[in-house]
Write a sequence for this structure.
């Protein structure tokens, strides 16, 4: 014997299903937006390495190993070597500048397109008067804003 479901019960069941399907599908979690606006590339950033005037914090404070590490990091855009004080080289002699330049050039040469100086830097006018390569190194190579006094 075959039993049949009354027509009105079929309509009720169909109506419940029409309401239930959107309710259950709306419970799904919305996808989270991808970081960096959908870009899978890590966001680049700059690194600032400060060095001072005292023997304990001079340019030696920026080790070559540290520069090599940041240079090989694909998320690092630029590495800036920043003097703690803009006037920390303002009393150097010509030979003093040449010594400092040799050490800073070694660091800059790790990647001349990535390692720079940053900020204002005061130089001794008497020491650089006949040695414009000193000014060019700090201004053009390292990209400091050079002030000669």
């Amino acid at each position: 014997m075959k039993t049949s479901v009354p027509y009105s019960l079929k309509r009720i069941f169909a109506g419940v299903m029409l309401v239930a399907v959107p309710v259950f599908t709306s419970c799904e979690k919305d996808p989270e937006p991808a970081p960096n606006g959908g870009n899978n590339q890590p966001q680049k950033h700059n690194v600032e390495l400060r060095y001072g005037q005292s023997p304990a914090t001079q340019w030696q404070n920026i080790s070559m190993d540290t520069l090599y590490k940041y240079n090989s990091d694909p998320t690092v855009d630029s590495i800036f070597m920043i003097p703690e004080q803009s006037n920390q080289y303002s009393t150097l002699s010509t030979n003093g500048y040449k010594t400092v330049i040799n050490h800073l050039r070694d660091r800059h040469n790790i990647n001349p397109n990535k390692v720079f100086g940053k900020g204002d830097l005061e130089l001794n006018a008497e020491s650089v008067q006949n040695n414009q390569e000193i000014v060019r190194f700090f201004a053009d190579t390292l990209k400091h804003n050079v002030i000669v006094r």
Observations:
- The chain has five helices and five strands.
- Residues 58-148 form one domain.
- The chain has a mean pLDDT of 85.
